[in-house]
């Protein structure tokens, strides 16, 4: 029960004062564990202009266990799997870094930052990570291409 | 006059509601003034009980050392120092006598419980009150006086500025206790937002982390830690603030200290967690420590699998937490690894089932002197060790006293152990009387009758290699001094005829490894025509295979011996009365023991003075004697 209460609080916090470029709501009003997030591709990244739908899932054990984030909109990014799952790998959500007093607000901001600054050493997609490291112009071109293909005007 | 006194008392009671007016005297009252200085006060408790030490102004110290309530040791001065936030209150008793304020001074009495402020200082403070009354022109002075006391308390009566307060040791507990209670009381009144449930909570239902000071509500901590301990997720038993443990780890590694981010069992109990849960935590942690230590030795009993008792990771007994001191122990273990260790280091005792076993061969404890070889984890020897063990079984005889295996390279069967100087028979391991070792071979019922020269050429397949035969003169310069105290033979009787052999054929690994060397001082060898053939060779397998009575079953071997040596043996026989060789002569044995011990003591004494080379080796044959090494694995 305390989990529900905390989630409700955090939801109130982020909906009343959402991070720039994000719209946050529940997938289903009766279930606070699944959040629906629409994130604008941040300025300064090849994803700018795109609108990315994310699913934030809070486990039953939340906040003792970290939430998970999936990109419902396909995104070509070193730290997000380029498939239907759109699984994301981010430090704050790893079991050993997550602390019960970590906040969803921070998770969302970290996600946004990840789009601006990928972490190629911790990559899920090696091809984009390679390009990011070794051929930045090509990486940007590819990312823009896929953003246009999946995240703009959909 | 009455009115003035009454007005002042009423006034004070309004300002200080905690003031208590005496039941008997309406013009007397007492008030407790809390001593809660603005900054922490460094309090020193001299280790020796020199009675009540007056407050001594001591030079300021660096403020950086130690947090609130943490002991800071001052080894140079042998003083214990604590930084306290709260000190026991100052009690003030006020009496307004008749004639106050115009004629009589107010009477102030100050005290503290315990007396952490010295009487003389309190007297001084009391006098200040009187002085104020006089200087104020005999008017109402009580409020002003209380106010001045409160101001003095705020700077801890002049001890807030790093100037340490010295308090007798006997009040230490009371003062620390007061500080803890007052701190807790203040904490309980505060309100905190728990970072987990995000609710504001009163301090009384919160816990402040001892190491980092972060505050969470007790319920969230209980939920989280109980869950983590139940799941065996020990690493999570740390502060719940993101990055907190990491930050502290970095700070500590800068200081060169080891990180300890996990909570201590005592803190878990303070939160509080259930005792059973904390015990589980301690046990799991102990197990994890053992598992992460590659030097841990486990009990060979299949049903037990406990770890051997170790100083490094002591088994927790209830909740007593044992801090392991890893750094040093690790290097020790590295050092002793692979080296030949004294038998004592081999003894392991299982912390669970108390089984005593050998850490090398994983068999039940066999004493320090039994030779054993390492077993692999699954209880098997390596091929190399197996071969060595086989060889030892086949070609050595253990000393009956200390079990050190000896391999004979040549000569007669009268052996003297290099380790313990026991005289024994190479064939049957029987003790021999040092005075008359040959009796054993001259008695018909010993099983070794007339077998002194059996295996004369040495025991083992490797013995012949590099064995130059009987023609070479002894080369004393080749003697290696490996165990000096083990090499004396006091025999007057002509020792068996032996021939020279190079100490260790270089090709043989076994000999290089061998810690055991047996040497016999012997008279010059009688030149012989040819190296002795190996007369017993065809029977070796049988001899060794037959266990104990194998030697007894053999026919007397003298028949095979060349005539010359046969003669020598006969001479020996002639000099020795035939006796019951197999029966150990206790008296003689003890006599020998005493002699030996005396000699060793003498040797050690001289060795301590670096004069061991002056020891009388008590042999006139020293110059021409050949000393033999019989290297054995």
Give me the secondary-structure topology.
The complex is a heterodimer of chains A (154) and B (633).
Chain A: H1 2-16, E1 22-28, E2 31-40, E3 51-57, E4 68-71, H2 104-116, H3 126-134, H4 136-150
Antiparallel strand pairs in A: 1-2, 2-3, 3-4
Chain B: H1 2-15, E1 20-21, E2 28-35, E3 41-46, E4 72-74, E5 79-84, E6 87-95, E7 107-112, H2 119-135, H3 142-154, E8 165-166, H4 172-189, E9 191-193, E10 200-202, E11 206-208, E12 215-217, H5 218-231, H6 244-255, H7 265-270, H8 275-292, H9 326-336, E13 347-349, E14 356-358, H10 383-395, E15 397-398, E16 405-406, E17 414-416, E18 423-425, H11 439-442, H12 509-513, E19 516-518, E20 521-522, H13 540-545, H14 550-553, H15 563-575, H16 586-608, E21 626-627, E22 630-632
Parallel strand pairs in B: 3-8
Antiparallel strand pairs in B: 1-2, 2-6, 3-5, 4-5, 6-7, 9-10, 11-12, 13-14, 15-16, 17-18, 19-22, 20-21
Helix pairs in contact in B: 2-3
Short recap of the structure:
The complex is a heterodimer of chains A (154) and B (633). With 154 residues, chain A is an alpha+beta fold.
Walkthrough of the structure:
- The complex is a heterodimer of chains A (154) and B (633).
- By secondary structure, chain A is an alpha+beta fold.
- Chain A has one domain: Ubiquitin Conjugating Enzyme (Roll).
- Chain A has four helices and four strands; from the N terminus they run αββββααα.
- Chain A has helices at residues 2-16, 104-116, 126-134, 136-150, and strands at residues 22-28, 31-40, 51-57, 68-71.
- Chain A has a four-stranded antiparallel sheet with strand order 1-2-3-4, covered by helices on one side.
- In chain A, strand 1 (22-28) and strand 2 (31-40) form a beta hairpin.
- In chain A, helix 3 (126-134) packs across helix 4 (136-150).
- The longest helix of chain A has 15 residues, at 2-16.
- With 633 residues, chain B is α+β, with helices and mostly antiparallel strands.
- Among the domains of chain B are: 4-48 and 77-170, Ubiquitin Conjugating Enzyme; 190-292, Herpes Virus-1 (2-Layer Sandwich), CATH 3.30.40; 297-321 and 342-395, no CATH class; 396-461, no CATH class.
- Helix content of chain B is 30%, strand content 13%.
- Chain B has 16 helices and 22 strands.
- Chain B has helices spanning 2-15, 119-135, 142-154, 172-189, 218-231, 244-255, 265-270, 275-292, 326-336, 383-395, 439-442, 509-513, 540-545, 550-553, 563-575, 586-608; strands at residues 20-21, 28-35, 41-46, 72-74, 79-84, 87-95, 107-112, 165-166, 191-193, 200-202, 206-208, 215-217, 347-349, 356-358, 397-398, 405-406, 414-416, 423-425, 516-518, 521-522, 626-627, 630-632.
- In chain B, the strands form nine sheets. Chain B has a four-stranded antiparallel sheet. A four-stranded mixed sheet of chain B has the order 4-5-3-8, with helices on one face. In chain B, strands 9-10 form a two-stranded antiparallel sheet.
- In chain B, helix 2 (119-135) packs across helix 3 (142-154).
- The chains are: A alpha+beta (154), B alpha+beta (633).
- The A-B interface holds A 2, 5-6, 9-10, 61, 63-64, 92, 96-102, 106 and B 195-199, 216, 219-220, 223-224, 227-228, 235, 239-244.
- Chain B: It is an enzyme of class 2 (transferase).
- Chain B: Pathway: Protein modification; protein ubiquitination.
- Chain B: GO terms for molecular function: ubiquitin protein ligase activity; zinc ion binding.
């Amino acid at each position: 029960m305390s989990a529900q209460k905390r989630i409700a609080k955090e939801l109130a916090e982020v909906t009343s004062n959402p991070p720039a470029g994000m719209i946050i709501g529940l997938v289903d009003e009766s279930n606070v564990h699944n959040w629906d997030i629409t994130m604008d591709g941040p300025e300064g990244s090849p994803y700018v202009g795109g609108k990315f739908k994310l699913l934030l899932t809070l486990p039953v054990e939340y906040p003792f266990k970290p939430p998970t984030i999936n990109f419902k909109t396909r995104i070509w990014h070193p730290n997000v799997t380029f498939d239907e799952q759109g699984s994301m790998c981010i430090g704050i959500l790893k079991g050993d870094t997550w602390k019960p007093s970590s906040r969803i607000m921070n998770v969302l901001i970290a996600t946004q930052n990840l789009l601006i600054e990928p972490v190629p050493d911790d990559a899920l997609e090696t091809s984009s990570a390679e390009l990011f490291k070794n051929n930045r112009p090509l990486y940007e071109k590819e990312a823009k291409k896929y953003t246009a293909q999946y995240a703009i005007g959909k | 006059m009455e009115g003035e006194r009454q007005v002042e008392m009423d006034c004070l009671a309004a300002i200080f509601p905690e003031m208590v007016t005496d039941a008997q005297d309406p013009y007397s009252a007492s008030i407790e003034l809390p001593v809660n200085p603005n900054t922490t006060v460094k309090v020193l408790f001299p280790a020796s009980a020199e009675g009540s030490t007056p407050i001594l102004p001591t030079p300021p110290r660096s403020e950086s050392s130690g947090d609130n309530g943490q002991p800071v040791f001052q080894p140079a001065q042998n003083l214990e120092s604590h930084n306290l936030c709260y000190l026991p209150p100052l009690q003030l008793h006020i009496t307004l006598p008749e004639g106050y304020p115009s004629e009589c001074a107010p009477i102030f009495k100050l005290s503290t419980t315990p007396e952490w402020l010295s009487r003389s200082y309190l007297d001084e403070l009391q006098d200040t009150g009187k002085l104020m009354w006089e200087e104020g022109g005999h008017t109402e002075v009580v409020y002003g006086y209380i106010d001045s006391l409160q101001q003095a308390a705020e700077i801890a009566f002049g001890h807030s500025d790093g100037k340490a307060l010295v308090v007798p040791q006997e009040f230490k507990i009371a003062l620390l206790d007061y500080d803890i209670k007052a701190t807790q009381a203040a904490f309980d009144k505060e309100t905190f937002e728990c970072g987990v449930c995000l609710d504001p909570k009163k301090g009384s239902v919160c816990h402040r982390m001892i190491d980092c000071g972060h505050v969470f509500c007790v319920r969230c901590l209980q939920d989280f830690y109980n869950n983590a301990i139940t799941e065996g997720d020990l690493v999570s038993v740390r502060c719940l603030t993101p990055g907190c443990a990491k930050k502290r780890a970095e700070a500590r590694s800068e200081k060169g200290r080891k990180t300890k981010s996990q909570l201590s069992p005592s803190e878990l109990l303070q939160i509080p967690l259930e005792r059973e849960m904390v015990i589980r935590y301690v046990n799991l942690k102990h197990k994890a420590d053992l598992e992460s230590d590659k030097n841990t030795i486990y009990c060979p009993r299949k049903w037990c699998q406990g770890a051997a008792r170790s100083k490094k990771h002591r088994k927790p007994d209830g909740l007593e937490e044992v801090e392991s001191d890893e750094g040093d122990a690790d290097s020790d273990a590295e050092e002793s690894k692979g080296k030949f260790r004294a038998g004592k280091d081999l003894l392991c005792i299982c912390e669970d089932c108390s089984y005593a076993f050998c850490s090398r061969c994983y068999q039940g404890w066999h004493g320090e002197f039994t030779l054993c070889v390492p077993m692999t984890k699954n209880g098997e020897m390596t091929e190399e060790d197996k071969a060595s063990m086989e060889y030892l079984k086949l070609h050595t005889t253990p000393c009956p006293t200390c079990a050190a295996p000896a391999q004979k390279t040549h000569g007669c069967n009268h052996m003297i152990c290099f380790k313990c100087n026991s005289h024994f028979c190479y064939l049957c391991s029987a003790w021999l009387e040092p005075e008359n070792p040959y009796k054993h071979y001259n008695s018909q019922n010993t099983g070794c009758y007339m077998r002194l020269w059996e295996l004369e050429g040495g025991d083992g397949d490797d013995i012949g290699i590099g064995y130059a035969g009987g023609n070479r003169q002894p080369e004393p310069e080749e003697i290696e001094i490996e165990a000096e105290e083990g090499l004396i033979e006091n025999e007057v009787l002509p020792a068996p005829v032996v021939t020279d052999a190079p100490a260790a054929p270089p090709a043989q690994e076994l000999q290089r490894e061998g810690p055991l060397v047996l040497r016999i001082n012997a008279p010059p060898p009688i030149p012989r025509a040819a190296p002795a053939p190996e007369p017993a060779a065809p029977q070796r397998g049988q001899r060794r295979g037959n266990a104990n009575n194998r030697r007894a079953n053999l026919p007397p071997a003298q028949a095979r011996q060349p005539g010359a040596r046969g003669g020598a043996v006969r001479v020996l026989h002639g000099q020795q009365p035939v006796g019951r060789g197999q029966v150990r002569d206790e008296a003689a044995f003890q006599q020998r023991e005493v002699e030996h011990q005396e000699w060793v003591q003498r040797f050690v004494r001289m060795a301590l003075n670096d004069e061991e080379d002056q020891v009388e080796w008590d042999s006139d044959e020293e110059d021409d004697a050949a000393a033999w090494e019989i290297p054995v694995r």
